[in-house]
Amino acid sequence: MTDISRRTLIQAAAVAAPLALSPQMLSAAGKPALRAAMLLDPAIRYFNAANIAPTFRSVAAIHEQETRAFQMDPSVERRALYPKVADALRARIAVRLKVTAQEIALVRNASEANTVAVRGLALKRGDRIILTDHNHPSTWDSWKLRAEREGLDLHVVPVPVDAESPQTLLDGIAAAITPNTKAIFLSHMSNITGIIYPVAEIAKLAQAKNIWLHADGAQTFGWMQLDLPALGVDSYSGSTHKWLMGPLEGGILYVKRARQAELQPIMMSHGYWLTDPANLETAQKYEISGQRDDPKLMAIAATLDVLDGVGGDAVIEPAVRQRAAAMRQAIAGVAGARVIGSGAAAITGPVITVAFPGRDVPAMRAKLWQGKIATAASKLEGGAIRFSPHIYNSDDDVAAVIEGLRAG
């Protein structure tokens, strides 16, 4: 591989310079300085991090700058920079998740990561796969297709949305396990109600019976402190465009080193980000999909710079939990509102879904948007509104929501 010039490395370091934020800019109330660091229109009160979160000005600027540099010089010689950037990024993400860089693949989003896990396992007719009815379509629909083609036993466990304890969730999964069970695929946190599965306890059941356990972390990666070895998962997915507040079409797939031989990649192509062919014996084999948006590597690194600048997940998680709990309580006090789920702290995250029996919920949501309050629609109970607050939401944002719900 061609050596990278010192000048190129200096330029790359300048591109990835961190945004100067301090921990004081972050609190459960959401500080104006942090919000001002984002590209988000100041007129919009944004409550849809579970879908797409806005990113930071520095991240967008670095992505744009590096994209221009790429297009000005797309030579093989300059592109030799990117495999080294990818190596550094895998290592950095691995530290956040308390795993090794050899267990991290850089993919396009959690959906791609989930699909690799679905398609890569060797199974036979009659094998049981356990899902829940809150699984994302990237696992639900992918498993349904594979089950129909291969005669697999796809068993769907209903999520007890009003559960008060982790034990209730654990019992539902345990009851579905049979001698033929080969894999359990869960959403770590449901994007439907915010319910969080006790993955570590489920992992103990799975490990005792050699069952593959995959956690879809699209709704936890970016705000929750994660220790994947402690969770006990065999594979885990995440996206950069949700709670991480990074660029679009970025994601990660973790696969436990000891079990990588059991999970095959779903595509073989040239390994653009390989620095050593031996790395095809690591999780890098799952990220090969042809030419990628190489400048996005810089943008993801810049996102991590911002988050590290405010204290990382150790600061972000309690802030997010506090913001969500306070908002859940405030919404529950609105006349006619029914917040779906128990709200028990041990199993509830920053997704709040609320129904208004007897009211025109689509019209209510439309009225919120007229006031520039961005939410998501839910099909639960014939129609509900989903809020997913994050660290950039302020007390004023929440007050505007409560006023809008009362007026709607």
From TrEMBL:
Membrane found in the keyword field: no
GO MF terms held by the record: transaminase activity
Signal peptide stretch: 1-28
InterPro entries per the UniProt record, alphabetical: Aminotrans_V_dom (IPR000192), PyrdxlP-dep_Trfase (IPR015424), PyrdxlP-dep_Trfase_major (IPR015421), PyrdxlP-dep_Trfase_small (IPR015422), TAT_signal (IPR006311)
Keyword check for Cytoplasm: no
Domain Aminotransferase class V: 85-400
Record keywords: Aminotransferase, Pyridoxal phosphate, Signal, Transferase
Entry superkingdom: Bacteria
UniProt name for this protein: Aminotransferase class V-fold PLP-dependent enzyme
